[in-house]
Write a structure and sequence with these properties.
The protein is of the alpha/beta class and 227 residues long. It has six helices and eight strands. It is 28% helix and 21% strand.
């Protein structure tokens, strides 16, 4: 067990040392504060905070509940991590897949005291908007935004008949930083999610982004220690 842990630590640090030759990396983490640890490593190597982008899932990552409900509870270390990112001026957003965006804002972000860190206006009711994002602005999306909280979905998915079996969730999370940081190419791009399904969509969408072949993509799958 000690040997395995040592190998894992060496691998993580060797990734950051030699990452100039890599474009993608996948890893399982046990706590959201692992994001802070990895960013501190990069900063110790001279990477500027402005060159690190972070996309964070809400349900199951910031809060304990994997599905939305009126009463939510913060996951351990999530407030600490958000405070760190906010204080260090690391570009970050919360990308929620939940289909009731304004409920996430009112019952989640505002209810848990996160509005300050996420530049959210609780009095604003977000409306569905059209976006053209990705490489050459060629990816049509629809979604909602309030401050640093965003939900995005392929525009074509809204044209599917209500009688057809369609995914109601907003899974185009890899584009979530672009509206807040347009045309910004990050040297490192972290995505944190507890859903393997969401991460698979992110991997599929990545070649359509402005970051493809330019950013080091680090996908962090958050799973509790007992899983």
């Amino acid at each position: 067990m000690v040997f395995r842990l040592l190998v894992k630590v060496v691998f993580i640090f060797s990734f950051f040392v030699t990452s100039g030759t890599l474009l993608a990396h996948f890893e399982t983490i046990r706590s959201i504060d692992e994001v802070e640890k990895r960013i501190r490593v990069l900063q110790g190597q001279g990477v500027k905070a402005e060159d690190i982008g972070v996309i964070i899932d809400f349900h199951g990552v910031v809060v304990n509940e994997e599905c939305h409900q009126k009463t939510l509870s913060l996951k351990e270390n999530s407030m600490k991590t958000l405070t760190y990112l906010w204080g260090e001026n690391v570009p970050f957003v919360i990308a929620t897949a939940w289909d009731d965006f304004n409920a996430v804002i009112q019952e989640g972000v505002e209810g848990l005291g996160l509005a300050k860190f996420l530049s959210v206006d609780p009095s604003q009711e977000a409306q569905l908007k059209d976006y053209a994002l990705g490489a050459n602005k060629s990816v049509p999306l629809k979604g909602y935004t309030n401050g640093k909280v965003i939900a995005l979905k392929n525009a074509a998915d809204f044209d599917i008949s209500e009688n057809e079996n369609k995914d109601p969730y907003f899974r185009q999370k890899i584009f979530a930083l672009e509206p807040s940081y347009p045309d910004k190419i990050f040297q490192y791009l972290f995505v944190v999610d507890d859903s393997s399904g969401n991460l698979n969509v992110i991997k599929k969408d990545y070649p359509r982004t402005i970051y493809y072949n330019h950013s080091n993509l680090i996908l962090l799958h958050l799973q509790e220690p007992w899983m």
